[in-house]
Amino acid sequence: MMLQISRLFFCKQIIPKPLGVQCRNLHKKSIDVTWEKPDIGWTKLNYDGSCKCKTGKSSIGGIFRNHNAEFLLGYAESIGNSNSMIAEFAALRRGLELVLENGWNDILLEGDSKSLVDIIARKKPVKCVEVQKHVTHINSMMPEIRNCILTHIYREGNRAANKFAQMGHNLKNPQIWRDIPRNEVLRCIVLQDARGKTFLRRR
Prior knowledge:
Strand order of the largest sheet: 6-5-2-3-4-7
CATH topology: Nucleotidyltransferase, domain 5
Shape: globular
C-alpha cells in the first residue's frame, strides 16, 4: 500500500503545470449572473467607479432603469486622481444625489463592490478619511428616500454602469443622459440586460 501511495505522489508531481491548472479549474463551481429588473414601481440604480492603475485617474458612472428595464437616466464624470475604492463611493454618492433631485422614492442600489456594501450596510469601519467623507454623505442621504435597498452584484451583471464609468475618463465636464443612452455599445448592453442575458462566472 505504501508503494502505491508513493507512486501516486510521484505521478502527481510530474503533471505539467498548465495541465494541473486546467484540472483544478474543472472543480471550480460556476454561477450564472443576470441583471434583474426591479419590482413594479421601483427604480434601480447600477453604479460603478473606474481607476486606471498606471495614472490613478478615476471616473464614475451609473444608470437608472425602471421595472420594465427602460433607460431613465445615465451619468458619468471624471473625478481626477483617486483609487478604485473612493471611485466606487463617489459613484454611489452621485447616484443618490440624482435620486433626490428626481424625486424617486423606491430605489434599489446595486454595485459590484462587496467592500462598499459591507461598509454601508454592515457598518464596517474604515480608516481612509476620503472614504469616510463619502460614507457620511451617503448615510445622510439614504434616510431621505422612502425605500432604499443596497445590494451587491457581480461585475458581469453591472456592465452598463461600468460602461458609463469608462466613458467618464474622456469627459471634461460631468454629463447626464436622459431617456436614451447615446453610446451604441451601451444601448446594446441595456437591451441585453432587458432580455435577461446570462453570463457564466467562474468562482
